[in-house]
Amino acid sequence: MITIVLPAYNEELTLSPLLDALADHLGEAKIPYQIIIVNDGSTDGTAKIIEKASRELPVIPIAHVQNQGLAETLKTGLLEAVKRASDRDIIVTMDSDNTHTPGLIMRMVRMLREGHDVVIASRYQKGARVIGVPFSRRMLSYGASVLFRLLFPMPGVKDYTSGYRAYRSDVIKNMFDSYGESFIDEPGFSCMVDILLKLRKFPVIIGEAPLILRYDRKFSASKMNVARTMRQTLRLIVKRRLNMP
Q: pTM of the full predicted structure?
């Protein structure tokens, strides 16, 4: 079983195309799947789209009454995934804005079956493409990649900030068992980096698959506040370098 976890906030324009693509690719592969969508207090038509999808697809809807941010939304989705998963299952996290191509999921699954514990859809592997992302954002992402590789080198990891990942479900279970809900406690987008940094303490094998990132298919407003994300990331670097909890 593959469980897809989708944090969603005001994605009425992009969620339906993503769900259609997921159904096409996973249906074609003939692998059982379910999609956990966590609606993080959306104020547009996202809730209606999720309700409709839950009648047509194996969608499990969860709703936050108020917007709580990416970290809490991801935590909610992963806790639900862990509750439903067996140790042989696979948990995939993706963005809901249709920029992550579902066709990569089966390659990531194959890498897990070949022996990896975690697979990251990476912008920095041969064959990766980034389409429609402003040059300034690309340089910020690349700079973050270089900085984290220097300060927190991890075998097999170049893209520390990508939210498109596949995990063996027992890895996520073990992390929640070890950390409790503080497994995901960094605010905003820096929570994706912190998940990897916490994984460094465990004997996991991490690999990367080349991502085709399609920002030209993103019709919703960006949820990332660049200045805030930079502050949060720098704070995380200091905290982890000092081995602070």
A: 0.89
